[in-house]
Structure formats: structure tokens, C-alpha cells
Task: structure prediction
Amino acid sequence: MSDELIEKVKQMIIDSLRIEGMSPDEIDADAPLFGEGLGLDSIDALQLVVAMEKEFGVVVPDAATGSTVFASVRSMAGYIGEHQK
Amino acid sequence: MICWMYPGQPIAFTDTYSNDPEFQKIALLCQGTTGFNPMESGTSASSLTQSVRLQLHGVCVSLYRSGQLMSQGRGPDLIAEHSMGIYAALAASGSIDSGAALALTCRIGVAMAGMGLHRDYALGCVIGLTSGPLADIAANHGIYLANHNTSRHFLLAGEREKVEAALAEATASGAFSVSIFSCDAPLHTPLIETIAGELRRIVAEYRFSAPRIPLVEHIGQTPLTAAAIPAFLVDELCRPVYWETTYRTLRSRGVTRFQEVGAGSALAKFNRWIDSET
Result:
């Protein structure tokens, strides 16, 4: 996957979750998004599902898939890369 | 126009400020009023149930955060509340003092805990379905939609086995995620009416002043008057929380900034979702 896609995913996270005062550079592409990492929760997950569909046309159908996809920025970018038409 | 929002019971002990003397004062007030010290959280020797301790913990954090914000000179134009956030909201509005808010939280919590002695209740969180299909699922299993937080975020309440069955059906129907939480009583459902008399007797022992800052309630989105508060405190436990409607109403009345005053950021996240659909 490209660095450009990873940067786009980081920006999408910041924009869709309205994370104030954070730049894409401050998000580690391999850090966990939930729990210890950015501390996201299931409300955030659905917001990311909608944002991914809107921005990349990629669907995350359920939480089981989401738990893998949203493991990190890199896994999100990987999923987008595989499923984007 | 600025609105302070008071969230309901947190699901875990978080955001403790035990090194801050102002939080310590509130913790001591809580201990003196209820026997529970929020600085000891889960390990407190209090005989109160976990749900009541979480409710008190949430109110303590909200009272502390209110004081912090007030000391910075950032008072609100309006106050809104969600579920058990009403007690701290009443204190912030000037209707009751902090001690009364803690005592009410504890006594109402203990009354509800009595329901849990006879049946096992739970709350089910469903994310991803809309209200129509979820209302059908709730009805199928004899439970209730207790919180309408956003178009895609709801809480169900009822007997645990029924909630578990409803969550399984919600998952099969395409819910993005479901989760279950233990609780003493089926909050925000008509089932609470079985203890309404006891709740009324508790509430009747307190005197409520007219809120100095308008306090908008989550059922009909009206500003509470002193006379309306006692009935609301019982009614709100028997009826659902309509957060999305409350948020949209406040927006339409000119609120431009919302500040969550309590543990966590659930209400801000609900608002973010609602805004994304507007």
C-alpha cells in the first residue's frame, strides 16, 4: 500500500472523529486505534465505517470485520486497498 | 450560546482526579453523604452496588468538572442532561446543592438496586440499526428501547436473558456492534413504575429551587421549573432518553457550543454523529 493512502486514512480519522489539535504525523500507522492507542470505541468505529464508505467507497459490513480492519491505520489502508473498486 | 451537557452513569471508573484538592473535597462530601468514597472507586468498602457506586462516581466527576469550568469563568447559557446526569445538572443549575445531588443519586440508586434483588437486569447497547427494526426486536423479546442516542445508537433495557436474546437478533439483523452491561434495574422503562411510589417518597424529601440557569430535560425538551422537577425525577426513570431530539432542539434554539461536563465523551460523540447526518 502507498504512503499516500496511509496519509489519507490518517486525515480521514482526524476529520471524521473531529480530533482537535492532532496532525497526521502524530498518528503511528501501526499503533492500535482502540484501547491503548487513540482510545477509540464502538461509537467511533461506526463513524469510521461511514467515513470509509463515503471517502473510499469501501464497506465494513460488521463489527467482526471492523475489529480486524480498525486494528491500526495500516490495516485500514490495507483493507481499503484490497476492496476499493 | 453555550450548553453544558451532563452525561449519565459511566460504565467504568475513570477520570479520577484524586490529586486535586477540589476533587478531594467532593469525594469527602460524597463519603459523608453516602458512605462511598469515589477516590477508592471499585475497591471502596461501601455496601452499595456497583451500579450505585458508578452513578455516584459519575456525579462526583461532573460536580468537579462543573467547579473547574466555573472557576475559569466559562458559565453556560443552558444546561442539558442525559439519564442519571440529571442530579449533577440540577446542582449546576442552582436548583439543589452538591450534597443533595449526591444524596438523591444514592437514595434513588439504592431504591433501584432493590429491583435487582428479585431479577437479573441488563442494558444492551446496539450500534448500527435504526429505531424501527430495533423497536420490533425489543418488542419481540419483551424489552424496551431505553435510550435513543442517535439514529444508529440505542440502549435496550430489561431482563438479562431477554436482552441477550434481543442482542443476538440485532446482530443477525445487521447491527454493527452490540454489547451488554449489568445494571440493578431496567432504567428508562415502564418497569420502573413498580417502585415509583418509593421514588416519589424519596424525591419529596428534597426542596428544589428554580434553576438559575435554564435546564432542558431529555423527554420533552422543556426547561424544568422548580414545580416540575420532583415529578420529572421519577418520570425520567420510567421513560426513554431522547438525546438526538434534545441535541437537535438545542441546536435549533441557538446553541453553538456544547461542553460535556462529566466522565468520558459519549455525548460529544453522539453529537458528532448527529451533525454528520445534518
